[in-house]
Hints:
The complex is a heterotrimer. Chain A is mostly helical. Chain A has helices at residues 4-30, 37-59, 73-102, 107-129, 154-176, 178-188, 190-195, 200-225, 232-247, 252-272, 278-292, and strands at residues 144-147, 150-152. In chain B, α3 runs parallel beside α6. Chain C contains 13 helices and no strands. The chains are: A mainly alpha, B alpha/beta, C mainly alpha. The A-C interface holds A 32-33, 35, 97, 100-101, 104, 107-109, 111-113, 115-117, 119-121, 123-124, 126-127, 130-131, 234, 237-238, 241-242, 245, 276-277, 279-280, 282-283, 286-287, 290-291, 294, 303 and C 33, 35, 37, 89-90, 93-97, 99-101, 103-105, 107-108, 111-112, 114-115, 227-228, 231, 234-235, 238, 276-278, 280-284, 286-288, 290-291, 294-295, 298.
Amino acid sequence: MSLQFLADGLLMGAMIGLGAIGVTLTYSILGFANFVHGEFVAWGAYACLVIAGLIGLGLGIQAEPLGPFSIGWVVLLAGAAAMVFTGGLALALDWLLFRRLRRHGNAIVMVMASFGASMALRSLLEFLFSSAPAYFSQEIQIAVPLGLGVRVTPDQMLMLGLTAVLVVAMHLLITRTTIGRSMRAVAENPHLAAVAGIDVTSVIRKTWLIGGALACAAGVVSGITVQIRPFMGFDLLLPMFAAAILGGIGSVPGAVVGGLIVGLAESMAVQFVGAEYRAAIAFLLLIAVLLVRPAGLFGRAEA
Amino acid sequence: MTARVVLSATEIVAGYEPDLPILNGAGFVLREREIVTLLGPNGAGKSTLIKAVAGLVPVTSGTVRLGDQEITRLPAHTLIRRGLGFVPQTENVFAAMSVEDNLLLAAAILPRDRRAARVAAMYAMFPDLAAKKSLAAGRLSGGQRQMLAVARALLVEPKVLMLDEPSAGLSPKIVGAVFETLQQVRASGVAIVLVEQSVRAALAIADRAYVLAEGRNRHEGPAPLLRDDPIIAHLYFGGDPVAAP
Amino acid sequence: MLDTVGYLAFFLTTALSYGLMCLGLNLQWGQTGLFNVGVAGFAAIGAYASAMLTTPAGNHWGGYGLPIFVGWIGAMLASGAAAAVIGAITLRLRADYLAITTFGVAIVIQLFALNAQSVTGGAFGIGFIPRPFVSLAEHALAFNLANLALVAAVTLIVFLALERLVRSPWGRVLRAIREDETAARSLGKNSNSFRLQAFVLGSAVIGLAGAVQGHFIGFIAPENYLSAITFQVWAMLIIGGSGNNKGALLGAILVWALWSATGAAMTAIFPPEQQARAAALQIVAIGVLMAAILLLRPRGILGEQVTVSRHVDAEG
């Protein structure tokens, strides 16, 4: 039997994990399950597509693919710009909507508002770009055999590498820096954080910025290795929630491990059950973890 | 007794809901190098008073001054930068974070080059904490937690330290150690406001005391005199006629 | 003129079937504070259950050809049972886990409806669902009016039953749980049991609404139960006034009117090949309206009803 499904699951899981970091951070620091996170993924991918197109247009160049990859430096540059854009989008949404609702202090109203906003943002994307899939590149990728029947495209390897770099960077940010400590402090006890001199509002803003940027990164990775669709974020939402809860809300390594578990389980389901039920796997894992260990693998028992 | 006033709260009306004030004009004055304690029966509003001063309870009217600056209604997180430290009663450390991270977090408002020195100074002052740098604060003993909470506030060298019932939940021996620490803190030049339930221990180290009831000042005076005061005796040891219907 | 009356009857029938869903959701959210993002899923369970019970044998499960009202009871039981399982797992956890799991439930049910062909008929769904008053089908106006009368009667019965419940001591406990988490916690296990009851009952009503819709249209398919339905029903409840059964019905009629009107406008403005795309704008408009209501008038148009329990009513 080919072990290809393990490689596929790992790739899928890395992508889910990258998105789930943003979910787990916003969840623990802002205190609510943010349904807009999926839309940040999709908006990030489209933003990257548009920015790459604009750069190409502005410089009048055809983006040459880099080495064995299907994409060139233009897409990578556009990806960085799109991360800033999506972080800004998250901030704007907070300013327009969540900031005002936060004053009432009812978390579940924020969940509801995020649900409404996610529908609106997704539909706007569908209106602007239609529901037809888009691609970063028309290049055809040749999968490289890695042994044991596993074949991986250069793009997939590049994306896996980029994801790993982002995950390690996030982990260091959270555990070793002042902003990371402030974020953990606000997540645990916002009042005490304020007493200790932390500007909670500013930490919330930074959390949106980081969460949005990471969602965008997940969207770009997904766009490069699969395709770009208005529903790509919606489809990732349940796996991302499952990964964040599986890993324990607030834990960055937990979100990544949770993402890998969900990704591997999905690809195993595709291998052994059939592709049509793939989307149910995240749900089953979610139910299982809520039944057995609601605080998640790395979480503190509190909920 | 003409030492400079470092903190004053005057005629404070405050509460979580505007229509239901818990405080109805309470206040206190704290002078340089003083320990002032706020006493009163449960529900008198003494904790609410220092929380209002710390910016954690909305103030409807009244004035809070730190030194010669008015700080009424300033956001809580700006006060520690101005030299006003506050140690809450419960959940006063970040339990999921290590002792070291708790201190580094507090140090973040200092200039970069002073942070390490101040953290080291706190370890020198509280050797127990130095031995448990990388332990999660939630796993410290009750007394060590209280020390960490105090260290977190002292690290940034405040002019004034306010503590909300630091003795709560601690054994008498540990309470003794905590209060001894507070006296050292005062000796180092920090003025202290202490809200306490354990009246005798508080009066033993305080210079002056205020007695609150129903959100107002009922009585005040030098601590040694209050120890034998009939009103205190009445409020604490003989039942509380004020609270009766 | 008759055309207008017929259309109005058709419009109101659809609006009221959504209103029925809003009533179920209002019991969960408005009265108990439970955030259910799986409205589409529970409506689908009801619609499929009723269809399986009432259709003639076909290429799906069931096909017992039972009377419509049996199908509707089956719909309530099936949706209620599904809610009981989900609720038992999630209601004891933090509030937004219910949102996430019900979101997942809706996805999985839609997936199942789409792929379990031998059970649900797959992508083509189930047809030949018996329509009430089918003997009148020749006469469109009479048919539409008769159906309106039936749906209105069902809605009225559910409305009155819920109003009675809300004013009962049971309803008072639900509101206490919603308003005061501490009080809820002091009730302990009991509070979870009350929330579960409200969740199951509300989902049963949503299932009934799904079945009513299915029988009115005569066929159901998986694509009818996407998250857009959940979103519409939520918008109806928020706009009309959560915590208020009259508001739930008002919201359903208003939002459905807005939806129909913007739909007609899109058809007029955009060329046929752009219409799928333009329909997305309708959702954007409703989403913005919902956010605006949440910000500016969080209790909706009618606001929460001041409910006095019958017990107190009788005394005063």
